[in-house]
Amino acid sequence: MSTISFVLNKEKVSVDVEGDTPLLWVLRDELKLKGTKFSCGKGLCGACTIHVDGNPTRSCVLPVSSVANLEVTTLEGLQEDKEYQKLKDQWVKKNVPQCGYCQPGQLMSATALLKSNPKPTEGDVKTALSGNICRCGTYQRIQDAILDASKEGDSNE
Amino acid sequence: MSDKEISGVGAYVVHDSAHKHVTGEAVYTDDLPELPNCLHTWVVTSPHAHAKIKSINIKRAESFEGVEAVLSAKDILGTNDVGPIFPNEPVLAEELVEYVGQPVVIIAAQTRELAREASHLVKVEYEILTPILDVREALEKKHFVAEPHSLQIGDSKKALANAANRLQGEIDLGGQDHFYLEGQICVAHPLEDDDMKVYSSTQHPAEVQKMVARFLNLAKHSVVVEVRRMGGGFGGKETQPANIACMAALLANKTKKSVKLRLGRDEDMIITGKRHDFYFTYDVGYTNEGEITGIELNLASKCGHVADLSTSILDRALFFSDSVYYLKDATINGFPCKTHTVSNTAFRGFGGPQGSFIIEEVIDVISNKLKKNPHEVRKLNYYGTEDRNVTPYHQTIEDNIIHEITDQLEVSSDYQKRYDEIREYNKNNKYYKKGISFVPTKFGVSFTTAFLNQAGALIHIYADGSIHLNHGGTEMGQGLFTKVAQVVASEFQVDLSRVKITATTTEKVPNTSATAASSGSDLNGMAAQNGAQKLKRRLIKFAAEKYEVDQSSVTFKNNMVYAGDNEISFNALVGEAYFARVSLSATGFYKTPKIYYDRSTSKGRPFFYYTYGACVAEVLLDTLTGECKVTRADILHDVGASLSPNIDMGQIEGGFVQGMGWLTNEELKWDDKGSLRTHAPSTYKIPVSRDIPDVFNVEILKNHKCKEETIYSSKAVGEPPFMHGMAVWHAIKDAIKSHGNYEKEVKLNAPATPEEILRALDSM
Q1: pTM of the full predicted structure?
Q2: pLDDT number for residue B529
Q3: Per residue in B313-358, pLDDT tens?
Q4: Nearest to A107 by CA among A123, A83, A126
Q5: Pairing between strand A71-73 and A2-8?
Q6: Of B20, B30, B654, which has the smallest distance from its Cβ to A136's Cβ?
Q7: Is A2-77 a CATH 3.40.50.970 domain?
Q8: Which fold has domain B277-448+599-762?
Q9: Whose C-alpha in A33, B43, B516, B565 is 20 to 30 A from the C-alpha of B383?
Q10: Which residues in chain A are closer than 8 Å to B476, comparing Cβ atoms?
Q11: How far apart are CA A103 and CA A138, in angstroms?
């Protein structure tokens, strides 16, 4: 056991866990943030995507010790975020989610994309989201939602 | 959602949980708060495909720190059997293991890690037996899980003997893992009197209840099963969750503590069943134009170690092996082959896609022989509307609209022009080849086991006018809860937000059927409507008495109730009805009329109605690598008068993507010892964002109500669009054909992975 501190959703937190515990379980079991989902446990499906210092990262294969003193953001911490809000509104408007289980991860990847690339092309979207699996097959709507969110406010610029 | 105009039946609404899905607030089973001291689990499974258990030693595991229970079959309190149709399908292996991954011992410990560590201390001695792993071997040895079943119409022998042309062939079709993003999970809470509360990610709470009760030797009333939503089901949570729930409940019963059993991805893929693989052979006679004059089909399904739902799935495969084609003289045989692999199970389409796959292959092979466009041969064989409309199971098709769908889609997809252009493109390109296909579909709707076609609902109206809705259907992302709420909102003419959607629980509606066979909204929508109408009649009677008007003058509209010249808000009327002691709670019930099937004669009307559709797919194939890209897909799909067009469109898009995955990149590989080697997304590839068509045009067929009395004349939508993935397969085949100038025979098995495509190209 060791005490590991990091910034979670803009607030400093400290947890007493084994340093090799995957961050996903620290978030879900210790800190009770259930918006980040477990699915494949191998960093291959994207359901557990969070941001570490703004970069989309798979939390299920990330030892908590590796985020010591870094900034971790989960879906819960994005609620006031401008890019996320645009995306979220498009997501609902376009009725993107079916079962919904992968969507927190999809939104984390999408938000990171718009932050680093505010005007992505269709190809950019496909590439940025290619690591987020959706078994319901909502990809077309996800893509449309991201592209439309990225165009929001264009007429005012 | 305050405006009724945008929330009733047929309105363009979003999924009821969409707002929660995007904030992470939607609660799945794993997200429920855990009770203090909740135990976690590990399942010890068989490393052998076929072996006798000689001994099980759990001593060291039991004394491992943090371990609270280590159980095997001998600890089961009731019956060790979760067979949904046939008996003797054990949860925990007794004397025999029959697949790699079969649960043998279950462990509960303070953490999952401890349970896993303890699992290494369990010693099971086996005497290894010879397994049968291959469906062909099982077929040859007549190693079946149940009796074969056949459909017959006319005289196929004679027709084949007299045919102008005749050909035979065979093809393999692979299975498919469900890969629901939320894996199998269950939380069992022990209660007083040995009762058990079970939170299960299941499409079939009533069956989980039944199996857990039987496993613990309890009456069903002692077990409550609840599910608010699943993170995907696709059929994988129809029978499989009962196994998981039985294990969790037994551990909870023994330890008197709450127990969570959540399978990891690898365990989930290894332990639980998948879509059935098939091996097909055919013998077909046809005219010089390509019309089928006689056919014999043999469908051998790889069932795995027990029957599970395999017989019903094989029945549906037989029923669907006509697709939209009239087979006058046909014999269709189904063989449920037993292999020492995990028992295969329900998966979106339930054998239907496999059945339709073989007839589409046959048509394609005929077209190739005759050097004709397969689309022309398909049309030539379409069922008629007034004649040529009797199926091989002797149901007369009364609602055929495939000709209209074909006409419309030919125009909207610009089919013929693109077909010609692709021929031209392929002439001028050596390594890249394009392919196009036009594949129609017909999907029979109903459970083919008649008694399953029933549903119940429970509706309360509280004194403030708010409505509580419950029914037997489960929500796995298909939007069922939203649709049924739309039905209730429409009946009362109130805003959708006035109808509270609640978790499915065996406490509210008993003895329900699985949410399966695409029947969710057909059955539960009708049951909820029935309940709502009972309440409405009571309110109408009350309003008529209160205002001294005729009952016929009482109407509901826009959150108001009108009685003659009087008007009152729905909420106020309900409030007054409460004080007047009117009962404001009602159950609803529905059973599908007209359907029956006599298995002894293979005749009947297993389907209430059919839904139709067609897809034109176009692909670009790199013949040097076998890599393939779907460049365009156009789908026209029939949902009757849609209950919820936005939700239906999502089902059509998603069904296509999943169907495409089945026949292209999703490949399950077992080794020669019967071990599944593809049990994670690293080796099992489902479609991702890059795989969807570059151009994806999806449309709902307009102005076609269901001809039968369904809920608001709508049609089922869950499974049928899955069939459209077949168009991708045929487009790939078309591209491969161009490699041989459309003159050579193509031998392509499914799935068409790049390796399989290269093999097919090389063999030309």
Answers
A1: 0.97
A2: 98
A3: 999 999 999 999 999 999 999 999 999 999 999 999 999 999 999 9
A4: A83
A5: parallel
A6: B654
A7: no
A8: Aldehyde Oxidoreductase; domain 4 (3.30.365)
A9: B516
A10: 99
A11: 10
